[in-house]
Amino acid sequence: MADHFCIMEALDELPNEPSKDDLIYVLNSVIRQAPSLGRELEWLRYPRNGVTEEAKSYWREYYSEKFQGASGAAASFAGCLDKELKLVDKCRKDGDMENAFAVTVMALAEFLGTLSLVNQPAMKKAYFLINYLKNDFKYFKREEDKERAFNLVFDRCARVHAYGNDIQYILISDVLLPLCPNEMCKLMLENRVDEIEDESKKQELMRKLIERFYGIEELQKYEEGTLNLLENFPDKMIKCAIKRGNYNQALKFCSEFEYDWDIDPMPYLVEISEKTPDISQKKDILKYLAIKDSDYYENFKSLHTPEEWKECIKIILGGSKENALYQLVINDESVRDKLGSICEDEPFLALKLYNKIPRSQRERVALLFVDHIRKNAEMASTRKELKEVCDMIRMYRGVFSKDNRAIKQELMNSYKSNRMFVDELRKVN
User: Fold this and answer.
1) Which residues of 272-346 form beta strands (DSSP E)?
2) Given 26, 43, 142, 202, which residue has the most CB atoms within 10 angstroms?
3) pLDDT tens sequence across 301-353
4) Nearest-CA neighbor of 269 among 255, 287, 285?
5) Distances from the Cα of 77 to the Cαs of 64, 82, 114, 117, 391, in angstroms?
6) Residue 54, CB-side half-sphere exposure with 13 Å CA sphere
7) Separation between Cα atoms, residue 354 and residue 366, nearest integer Å
8) Are 258 and 292 spatial neighbours (Cβ–Cβ below 8 Å)?
9) Which residues of the chain have pLDDT under 70?
10) What pLDDT sits at residue 135?
11) Are 52 and 60 in contact (CB under 8 A)?
12) CA distance linking residue 267 with residue 87, whole number of Å
């Protein structure tokens, strides 16, 4: 039941038209709050062909027994690990290394998440899982496959805070550290090691990490207290993502670190906007930059074709006057010359923009708004819609400073058989 409420709360956070990133955010929220659901959802992510049904059935059996009592669950857990080891052996003999690796990670993740149920037989089998991971890493040849395998182990087994557990320490020391495939993974590992609460294990892992990636001289500096690997950590992560051309990841880091580390993301966003080949992404970044700094307004504007810019103006001017981008657009001389044309497409904008429209265009815009009233009157059928037409007539007088009696009388004559409409029109001053 708690898992059900967890999902409902996460879904409530979704906008009406969720993007892929919104859905990923909700999935991550569910995983954080309901680990059992997270383990099930993990199969949607890795490997590409999915883990065998045989592996899943073992763990369903374990989950069903898990809540029957600690002793029964511990026995079931050890039994599941034993079955998993056999299944891993079978996958490896069949040359199905992706499934072998994924099953091993899944079993180890369950072990780390269920320390209270672990008994000695299960502990021994967990060491076998570590050795499997160590050996099986070599089957991933391509850089992207190595990184994917590393990230799976890191996310499911190293990121969880299983305090006081030697298995996790060994996992980081013997698997992730020596097999770390690239700079980004190294930085993630540095940050994770720094979070370890056991100070002696933290120091030992940090020494191994520095010796592995930085050499003896840097290790001596660390021992002397003059080297801090986490110094400028956000800067290193963002720059590494940019260097790798992973601009989505760089943007994600900018967003996270702005709040978690209180960094200024502007310099990184400028660099990403210059380097990303994705025009849509470039527009989004420059729009944000223009809101923060008007110097980027012309750059943002230049990315649009004339038709795209016209549509963009409509959206911006239809928003809040307090928005910095609204002020930039409304004070843009080239835009003010087009306001009459824009109001022709979006008559309701005339109510907001009338005083900004060049005087030579105002009469035409006022006439266009009268046409807009006529069209809405023609389509109105319910009392609510008829009242809205009458509100437009009031606005016409208030905003345009025009006598509204002519249009009022015209509609009363045209719709004299519609008593409901005539009744509402009589209330218009």
Assistant:
1) none
2) 26
3) 999 999 999 999 999 998 888 889 999 999 998 998 888 888 888 888 888 88
4) 285
5) 11, 9, 9, 8, 70
6) 11
7) 9
8) no
9) 1-78, 113-122, 160-165
10) 87
11) no
12) 50
Q: Which amino acid is at 25?
A: Y
User: Using H for helix, E for strand and C for coil, what is the string for the chain?
Assistant: CHHHHHHHHHHHCCCCCCCHHHHHHHHHHHHHHCHHHHHHHHCCCCCCCCCCHHHHHHHHHHHHHHCCCHHHHHHHHHHHHHHHHHHHHHHHHCCCHHHHHHHHHHHHHHHHHCHHHCCHHHHHHHHHHHHHHHHHHHHCCCHHHHHHHHHHHHHHHHCCCCCCCHHHHHHHHHHHHHHCCCHHHHHHHHHHHHCCCCHHHHHHHHHHHHHHHCCHHHHHHHHHCCCCCCCCHHHHHHHHHHHCCCHHHHHHHHHHHHHHCCCCCHHHHHHHHHHCCCHHHHHHHHHHHHHHCHHHHHHHHHCCCHHHHHHHHHHHHCCCCCCHHHHHHHCCHHHHCCHHHHHHHCCCHHHHHHHHCCHHHHHHHHHHHHHHHHHHHHHCCCHHHHHHHHHHHHHHHHHHCCCCHHHHHHHHHHCCCCHHHHHHHHCCC
Instruction: Quote the tokens at residue 321.
Output: 């006057």
The closest of 293, 273, 292 to 283, measured between CA atoms, is: 273
